[in-house]
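ARCHIVE CARD
CATEGORY: sequence design from structure
SOURCE FIELD: tokenized fold
FIELD CONTENT:
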């Protein structure tokens, strides 16, 4: 891979890292909101939806980590 393509991959990695940080921040906010719910609400439908959202954001972060690893490997 030439330097120009390697540089473009580095730029993409930086954007992915930024998106990942944004998702992690939202996930943490949602987790904090979930943690602060009354137990009866947390155990209900609303709490389950919030838990699902946190889990889905964690999955998205994991997928972005995999993408970063694949791109780093491609650039090496």
């Amino acid at each position: 891979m030439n330097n120009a393509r390697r540089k473009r991959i580095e730029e993409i990695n930086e954007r992915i890292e930024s998106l990942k940080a944004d998702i992690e921040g939202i996930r943490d906010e949602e987790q904090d909101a979930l943690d602060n719910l009354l137990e009866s609400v947390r155990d209900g439908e609303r709490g389950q939806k919030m838990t699902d959202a946190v889990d889905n954001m964690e999955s998205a972060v994991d997928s972005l980590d995999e993408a970063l690893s694949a791109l780093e490997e491609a650039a090496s």
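CARD ANNOTATION: Residues 7 and 16 are 14 Å apart (CA to CA). The longest helix spans residues 3-35.
SHELF: design records, drawer C
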